[in-house]
Model the fold of this input.
Amino acid sequence: MVSILIIEDDVSLRRLYEIIISLEGYQIFQSTGNGENAVKLFKTASEKPDLILIDHRMPIKTGLETAEELLEYDAKSKIIFASADSSIKDKALSIGAKSFLLKPFNSDVLIREIESILSLQDTIT
Amino acid sequence: MDENKREKTVLLVEDNPGDVRLIEEIIKAIQNYNIKLKIAEDLVSGFNLLKKYSFDIILLDLTLPDSNGLNTVLSMLESAPNIPLIILTGFDDQDLAIEAVKAGAEDYLVKGHVDSHILKRVINYGIERYRIKKDLKDSESQLREALIRTNFYKDLFTHDMNNMLQNILSAVELGSRFLTKPDTIPLAQDVINQSKIQIHRAARLILNIRKLSQLEELEMHYYPVEVQKLLQHSIKVIKESFSNQIININIDTSESDLDILANNSLEEVFQNLLYNAVQHNENEIVQIKIKIQSEIIENKKYLKMEFQDNGVGIEDDWKKTIFLGYKQDKSLCRIGLGLSLVKKIIEDYGGRIWVQDRIDGVYSKGSNFILLIPEAV
Done:
């Protein structure tokens, strides 16, 4: 079953993402509001999530920093940024994120994006 | 008072006794002009006098036993950055004098070409020019500060607004999707309630921004405030904002008569702290305990208030930066405007605020925001 890691510090938004994603039949790998915690979870998990949905502006560690660490650990990680900050879009894509969604976006856009990223073939082998 | 008649204290740093005498005589010759002169023979003695007395202006020779040339100027500008500086120079050294002016001196006097009119004019203009320059610099830095602050608010406002819109949009979409399936109606209701909470969140953001600009623009007035009364009202407001949530707030105090010198802004403090405690909480029942007691610190009586919640807590690294607001690098921190406002208000009251874990060492069990506010005498 496809599993998705959610990293979003806005508590209620995190809950809504969980519901939207579960309703599509995906499994929630973990859901956290803290990038540092997410990196730990990712590194220690025996089975990695298939996709990561990440916010940028969060306390402790930003989404960009978190994504960089995740990609450094596993370059094949499929990351979708969901941020209200359009100024980081280029940076996010340049470090290897697969997609950038600018808040606010419709849930069907999120689902379509998840489907399309999951169908991508791994470019790095 | 006529600026000419005000006594001006002048520091003369000059090692040549002949030049010192000349300046003293010129000063004596200036009519209706009151100058108190102190003399130093070298730079170090000059620095010592600067530590002991305050001066309106410095007259500085560039060739001294312990310093020479432009270095003399730079050392003096560093030691006395808040006093206008006039250079005394020989006829052949005018290029150096101009360099000194470029470095920050106000003007220069050519030895042997000074009379009472010139000296009086150079001193007066030097002081006045320096004052104007300083006023300009001050207002520039105030403007820069205001610009940084404005950008911070703007950035935070757009960011938070978009997050709220995302919440509302997701909730409404989910809600309408659920409503077609009768068995999911309770879940739909819950999700739609989220939108209501987000609308209150937006309203709070707008309120906080307005309040922050008021604090910066308007003069604050203080009067004795009944803390409990204001607190009860704030609790009511917060419970109304989160009407679908179970919120238990318990006030723990043995003090009956609690007055502090504050104003209505105290309500913003309480509401923001309570709001955050509910908003950043994933429990079915939000528990908040407010402990109030008197505390004497260095003979001063303070009101100590602790807002303890069972929310998501604040990691140690974040505790240090959470109140920094716009002074913090925006990329490092996602601080709400609420706490910036809270901190500003509390500090205006002469108090302080900090945050600890509710249970020491276990941040995830909730936070304890502690306020110390001077009690009204």
In short: The mean pLDDT of chain A is 92.
